[in-house]
Design brief:
Blueprint (H helix, E strand, L loop, with lengths): L3 H31 L2 H27 L21 H26 L3 H31 L3 H12 L11
Helix pairs in contact: 1-2, 1-3, 2-5, 3-4
Bound molecules: MU-OXO-diiron.
MU-OXO-diiron binds next to helix 1, helix 2 and helix 3.
Length: about 170
């Protein structure tokens, strides 16, 4: 059995990951309305990944005989006006999620819960990649977003992203 505080944080993270999926779906819808279908595709795939993160947390809790409680998912909170807005909000959000994962890791560390630390190692690495991806998108948009042809090519590049199941299996 996991310690109650660690299990509670993991349970809370299930909700945060589903919220992330909801937020990225909102970003995808924004870009659909803007006619940028590649950006929309990128965030739809991202939303699928976030759902996977939630499902991994659920499975880990259940593998450890912990009860999972699903809470209400908040409405996406960002105001999106400019094409850059989702990219910047997404980067901020990933930094926030990294802090949440580190917080759970820290609680597991304090409890000498090595199993949970090992489980979370994958998420620590994943967060590094997600922050890099989010930051790279901002840089690309800064460089190419004001030029129609370049924006078209960037949109095509993002449209090629395909969903892949997570590399972590439990
Ligand atoms: Fe589940 Fe984008 O972190």
């Amino acid at each position: 059995m996991l310690k109650d505080n660690v299990a509670a944080l993991l349970n809370q993270q299930v909700n945060k990951e589903f919220y992330s999926a909801y937020l990225y779906l909102d970003f995808a819808n924004f870009y659909e309305d803007e006619g940028l279908k590649g950006f929309a595709n990128w965030y739809r795939v991202q939303a699928q990944e976030e759902r996977d993160h939630a499902m991994l947390m659920i499975q880990y809790l259940q593998n450890n005989d912990c009860k999972v409680t699903l809470e209400a998912i908040d409405k996406p909170s960002c105001t999106l006006k400019e094409r850059m807005d989702p990219l910047q909000e997404g980067y901020k959000h990933e930094q926030y999620v990294t802090s949440l994962i580190h917080n759970i890791y820290s609680a597991a560390y304090d409890e000498r819960d090595f199993r949970t630390m090992q489980f979370l190692d994958w998420f620590v690495k994943e967060q590094g990649e997600e922050e890099t991806n989010a930051s790279d998108l901002i840089k690309k948009m800064e460089l190419f977003g004001d030029d129609a042809k370049s924006l078209y090519m960037l949109d095509s590049e993002l449209g090629a992203r395909v969903y892949a199941a997570p590399s972590l299996t439990l």
